[in-house]
């Protein structure tokens, strides 16, 4: 029996030890002592299930002692192996061919298994191994060796384990005799061995790579460990640093073999209750990130074929290694910052399945909770944490490729521990195939699901973290997977709340806060995102781009094979909203724009989607983005865009934008390092034309657009919009295409409908002391208690019938441009510009008087007609903000060339600075336009009779309309003045023929309905043309006057060099399609004259105010400014003066005059004189007293202003009766 046991031990030791001989095997009773032994690296590699890219370069045992049980109990009690020290070195292999040859050489010495499950195997499976100290040195290269210097090399990890114990158990992980443990496999088709691993102490030290000491940068780092780089970061990792210490844990191991004892499955589950890193320095953290990056690359290298390795052939075909850590605490301490990372319920598993030819790897990572805190700032803040919102889902979705990936190894079912928190906060599933298959099979597929998160962007912490990530997480392209492989990536985030604190009173904002036009009541911004999704895969179905209808994207059509030359990306979110955080003492509570958490909603986007598709020109793998000479398509779609912004919010957002600009510059600075600079220089070399795509298209589609400019939020007004801008179906597309020796840049814009509504300013005209930012208490309110808005710009769309019976809507705006730019000066004749624009269905209401009132209310113009105080401070604020840098021209320097096209070394450049296009064709058409001139009478009529519908609003006032107006400009005219054709060649002027035409020009007087009172009941009247109300919409408005004019350039002497072209009228056409009938009364003409005088006055005052805003009053002169301010008075008063008006017309002309001037003369004095003149009018109108008594029952006459409105209503009624009698 002893001899059988000795042969069994010799058989086992030959498998595990190198060059073991019988002479070393000496008995001392029931004890065998061995020392200074070398373990077989391939056997150890296969037993531990290590990654194929790792090689066991060193495996030494100090003192090796074997304690045998009694001979009678050898099958019941285990053999105990005690090792005082085990030294292991695991190194990532760079030369795979050398590793294959070494593995092949060593394979002959190893004893192959699979001959049956004999006595020696049973004895080996039942052994108990005790190791006092395990020293493991792990060296990974991470794909960055020789790149950026040794300072950026991945550090080595020294792992020390003390008091390690490995023993055999039954299927329930209980210690039993070996026979009972083996009985579990009697009626099974497989052989199962269950073992449990325990250790008392584990520590991990990070050590600098030996090559770092030979680096040239190391000589400059001897001043001390506190030396910083130019961006203030400490990157040089001087000595070893303890990462983890005092970790205890246990592992559950299941070995599955066939009946012939061939390895079939290996499952290892490690459980660590707690992992604590109390203090890690800044260089240590950077080294730790580089270590994890190198470990990631080592585990996922695609250039390693597991079946080519000897140790992989001896390993189990199925393996599952999982690690569960209940709590992780990491503290990064430095003199200037301190970060704390708390992670709960970390689960990591890696499953491998190999069929002898190919291998599949499935990696799963789940995190139950994550908290990142900045404890150095005052007060301490949490940077990242789970959202407080509860999610309805309670089960984690597993991707299709993760379902039934590997047959169970542990025979009693899935024993994976469930997360204590239910649904994990972050869940990652990744599938990888080795060796990487050729397209169209995916080499890797990754899905990341994340529950709602909250992120607090603290400036200093963000700069630190960005610097850590830029230095640590750097993977060389092609290090994981080859370029020809195709991959799929999907990221789902249920919700995200990003808080950006910004206090204007901070020292960094003090310089600009003194010029703030308003005292900001906001303390920061919050970005809220729901259902964020990002996906990258060449098999994506892109609905926004609609590639199947793009002829240039034939290789991306449905059904076409996919390969590495294609790339498709998609990002979408169901809701993105930007809200501003109000201070504690801010007002405005109770508004629907204010949320309960003290947030003021500013911007809201629903169903936002971004799609990108690109492909290389020659079918090569797409490694550079964008692909040079390739094809690129970008599409952005938004179902609804809402914006509610006040002037205060606008300036705060500009400050926020400037703040982000400064932080971005700092992040770009800290992210600059040696290897990144080398990559930039390499990508920036060569001409610009060779680096841009050959065919590019970018499109933007917005379904519903709503922009509201609100009253100042500091006034505590609930939803007080000053301006409301609505639009529907906006589509913009810009394309760029290379045409050999030229490029064509084309753009198109289509917009179906637009409407601009402004606040009513009628009550603001009553008192010159009213503030233009404070609403009047007598403002007309809608059903929600908000002021009524007045449409000043809207669109009336028409439909065009098609031959198939369908009809299409004529868009409000349709613009298309094509600009062909040659690359060489020899092809200058190819420089052309083609513009086609059509604007249809425009309706303009109000007038210059109303526009002037709006400018005063918005604070653009002050009481004196000059720039308002808020505008002045706002312009000063903007002049020093980010918009000044945005619109500031910068010198163009590309690839070492100056702006004038010459290179820095004096040689000529290939850059061509072209002048005006040689061939110009511009066509602009305006269809169905209408201008409504509305004065005070029309507005009072609208308010008094509660007419809120604007469908026929233009018919109630003087208005101008035309059916079509076209403007065409071309480079060469068909005819010239002398009848001779011009020679073709380089033209002196880009435009030589301009054609302007207008069809259906009409000027119409008011035709609105009048509501006549009979017996106390309002009834609808008839139009002034006698048609009933129902026929008003079908009244033919076309006809009118047609005008056309052709303007050409004059022939000039070639010797005369005149930069300005001289124009001459070639043809003038004037025609009418139908007879014109003009019927107008004297009173209407006089009212129109007064209305025009008021409009011209407002126009002059606006022009004067604009000149003063631009600070041009000094160059123009004060006399010209005064003349502009009284432009209408100087002209119209000479034609129509109050002294020349008749007795019957004076009342109507005075009573129907527009509101008085907003500046200069007091409005109260004019009001008193108007009321007095109307009081005198009672003498010539006997029925006035009776009518006024009746109207007094309708209108409350409690002021002179109300009395004036009463007389206006009377005059409207009298004029309507006289006109009806006249017709």
TrEMBL record:
Q: Name one Pfam family in it.
A: BLTP3A_B
Q: List the InterPro entries hit by this protein, alphabetically.
A: BLTP3A/B
What name is this protein filed under? Chorein N-terminal domain-containing protein
Species, as recorded: Fraxinus pennsylvanica
């Amino acid at each position: 029996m002893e001899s059988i046991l000795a042969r069994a031990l010799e058989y086992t030791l030959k498998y595990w030890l190198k060059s073991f001989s019988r002479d070393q095997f000496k008995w001392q009773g029931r004890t065998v002592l061995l020392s200074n032994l070398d373990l077989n690296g391939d056997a150890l590699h296969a037993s531990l299930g290590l990654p194929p890219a790792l090689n066991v370069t060193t495996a030494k045992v100090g003192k090796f002692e074997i304690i045998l049980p009694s001979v009678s109990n050898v099958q019941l009690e285990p053999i105990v192996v005690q090792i005082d020290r085990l030294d292991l070195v695991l190194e990532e292999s760079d030369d795979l061919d050398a590793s294959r040859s070494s593995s092949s050489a060593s394979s002959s010495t190893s004893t192959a298994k699979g001959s049956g499950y004999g006595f020696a195997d049973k004895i080996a499976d039942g052994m108990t191994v005790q190791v006092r100290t395990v020293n493991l040195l792990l060296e990974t290269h991470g794909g960055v060796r020789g790149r950026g210097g040794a300072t950026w090399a991945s550090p080595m990890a020294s792992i020390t384990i003390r008091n390690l114990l490995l023993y055999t158990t039954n299927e329930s992980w209980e210690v039993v005799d070996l026979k009972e443990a083996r009985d579990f496999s009697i009626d099974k088709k497989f052989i199962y061995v269950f073992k449990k691993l325990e250790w008392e102490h584990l520590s991990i030290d990070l050590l600098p790579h030996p090559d770092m000491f030979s680096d040239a940068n190391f000589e400059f780092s001897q001043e001390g460990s506190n030396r910083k780089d130019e961006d203030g970061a400490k990157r040089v990792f001087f000595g070893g640093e303890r990462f983890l210490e005092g970790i205890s844990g246990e592992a559950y191991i299941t070995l599955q073999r066939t009946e012939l004892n061939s390895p079939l499955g290996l499952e290892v589950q490690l459980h660590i209750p707690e992992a604590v890193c109390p203090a890690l320095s800044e260089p240590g953290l950077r080294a730790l990130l580089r270590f994890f990056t190198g470990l990631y690359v080592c585990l996922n290298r695609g250039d390693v074929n597991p079946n080519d390795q000897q140790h992989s052939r001896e390993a189990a075909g199925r393996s599952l290694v999982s690690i569960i850590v209940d709590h992780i605490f990491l503290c990064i301490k430095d003199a200037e910052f301190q970060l704390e990372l708390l992670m709960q319920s970390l689960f990591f598993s890696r499953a491998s399945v190999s069929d002898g030819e190919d291998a599949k790897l499935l990696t799963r990572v789940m995190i139950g909770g994550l908290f990142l805190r900045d404890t150095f700032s005052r007060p301490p803040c949490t940077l990242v944490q789970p959202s407080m919102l509860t999610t309805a889902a309670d089960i984690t979705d597993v991707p299709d490729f993760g379902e039934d990936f590997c047959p169970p190894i542990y025979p009693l079912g899935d024993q994976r521990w469930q997360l204590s928190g239910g649904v994990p906060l972050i869940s990652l599933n990744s599938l990888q195939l080795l060796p990487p298959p050729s397209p169209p099979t995916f080499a890797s597929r990754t899905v990341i699901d994340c529950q709602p998160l909250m992120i607090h962007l603290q400036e200093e912490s963000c700069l630190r973290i960005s610097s850590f990530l830029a230095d640590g997480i750097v993977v060389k392209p092609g290090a994981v997977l080859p370029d020809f492989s195709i991959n799929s990536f999907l990221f789902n985030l249920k919700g995200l709340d990003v808080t950006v604190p910004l206090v204007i009173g901070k020292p960094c904002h003090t310089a600009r806060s003194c010029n703030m036009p308003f005292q900001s009541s906001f303390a920061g911004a919050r970005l809220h995102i729901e259902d964020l999704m990002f996906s990258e895969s060449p098999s994506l179905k892109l609905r926004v781009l609609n590639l199947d209808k793009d002829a240039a994207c034939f290789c991306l059509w449905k059904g076409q094979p996919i390969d590495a030359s294609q790339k498709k990306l998609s990002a979408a979110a169901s809701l993105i909203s930007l809200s501003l955080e109000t201070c504690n003492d801010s007002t405005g509570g109770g508004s629907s724009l204010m949320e309960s958490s003290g947030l003021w909603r500013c911007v809201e986007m629903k169903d936002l989607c971004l799609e990108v598709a690109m492909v290389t020109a020659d079918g090569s793998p797409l490694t550079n983005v964008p692909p040079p000479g390739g094809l690129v398509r970008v599409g952005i779609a938004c179902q609804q865009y809402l914006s509610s912004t006040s002037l205060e919010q606008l300036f705060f957002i500009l400050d926020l934008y400037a703040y982000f600009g400064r932080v971005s510059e700092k992040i770009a600075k800290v992210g600059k390092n040696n290897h990144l600079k080398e990559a930039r220089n390499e990508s920036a070399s060569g001409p610009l034309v060779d680096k841009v795509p050959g065919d590019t298209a970018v499109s933007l589609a917005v379904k519903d657009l709503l922009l509201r400019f609100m009253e100042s939020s500091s006034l505590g007004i609930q939803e007080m919009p000053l301006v409301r801008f609505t639009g529907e179906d906006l589509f913009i597309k810009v394309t760029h295409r290379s045409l050999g020796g030229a490029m064509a840049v084309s753009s198109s814009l289509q917009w179906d409908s637009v409407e601009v509504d402004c606040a009513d300013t009628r009550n603001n005209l009553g008192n010159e002391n009213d503030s233009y930012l404070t609403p009047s208490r007598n403002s007309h309110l809608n059903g929600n208690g908000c002021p009524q808005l007045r449409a000043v710009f809207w669109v009336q769309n028409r439909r065009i019938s098609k031959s198939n019976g369908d009809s299409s809507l004529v868009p409000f705006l349709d613009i298309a441009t094509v600009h062909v730019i040659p690359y060489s000066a020899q092809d200058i004749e190819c420089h052309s510009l083609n513009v086609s624009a059509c604007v249809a269905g425009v309706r303009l209401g109000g007038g210059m008087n109303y526009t002037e009132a709006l400018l005063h209310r918005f604070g653009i113009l002050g009481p004196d007609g000059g720039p308002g105080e808020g505008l002045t401070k706002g312009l000063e604020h903007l002049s020093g903000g980010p918009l000044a840098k945005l619109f500031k021209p910068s010198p163009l320097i590309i690839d070492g060339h100056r702006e004038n096209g010459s290179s820095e070394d004096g040689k000529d450049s290939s850059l061509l600075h072209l002048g005006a296009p040689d061939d110009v064709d511009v066509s602009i058409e305006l269809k169905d336009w209408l201008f409504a001139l509305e004065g005070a009478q029309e507005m009072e009529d609208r308010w008094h009779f509660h007419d809120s519908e604007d469908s026929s609003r233009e018919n109630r006032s003087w208005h101008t309309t035309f059916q079509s107006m076209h403007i065409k400009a071309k480079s060469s005219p068909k005819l010239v003045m002398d009848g001779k054709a011009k020679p073709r060649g380089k033209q002196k002027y880009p435009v030589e023929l301009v054609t302007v035409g207008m069809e259906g020009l009409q000027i119409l007087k008011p035709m609105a309905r009048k509501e006549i009172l009979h017996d106390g009941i309002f009834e609808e009247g008839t139009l002034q043309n006698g048609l009933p109300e129902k026929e008003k919409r079908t009244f033919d408005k076309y006809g009118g006057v047609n005008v056309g004019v052709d303007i050409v350039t004059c022939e000039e002497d070639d010797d005369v060099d005149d930069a300005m072209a001289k124009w001459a009228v070639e043809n003038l056409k004037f025609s009418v399609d139908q007879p014109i009938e003009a019927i107008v009364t004297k009173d209407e003409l006089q009212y129109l004259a007064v209305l025009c005088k008021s409009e011209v006055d407002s126009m002059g005052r606006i022009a004067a105010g604009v000149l003063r805003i631009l600070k041009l009053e000094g160059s123009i002169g004060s006399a010209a400014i005064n003349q502009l301010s009284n432009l209408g008075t100087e002209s119209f008063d000479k034609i129509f003066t109050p002294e020349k008006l008749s007795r019957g017309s004076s009342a109507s002309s005075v009573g129907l005059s527009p509101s008085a001037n907003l500046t200069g003369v007091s409005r109260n004095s004019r009001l008193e004189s108007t009321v007095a003149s109307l009081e005198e009018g009672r003498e010539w109108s006997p029925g006035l007293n009776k009518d006024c008594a009746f109207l007094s029952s309708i209108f409350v006459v409690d002021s002179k202003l109300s009395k004036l409105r009463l007389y206006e209503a009377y005059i409207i009624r009298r004029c309507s009766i006289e006109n009806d009698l006249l017709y």
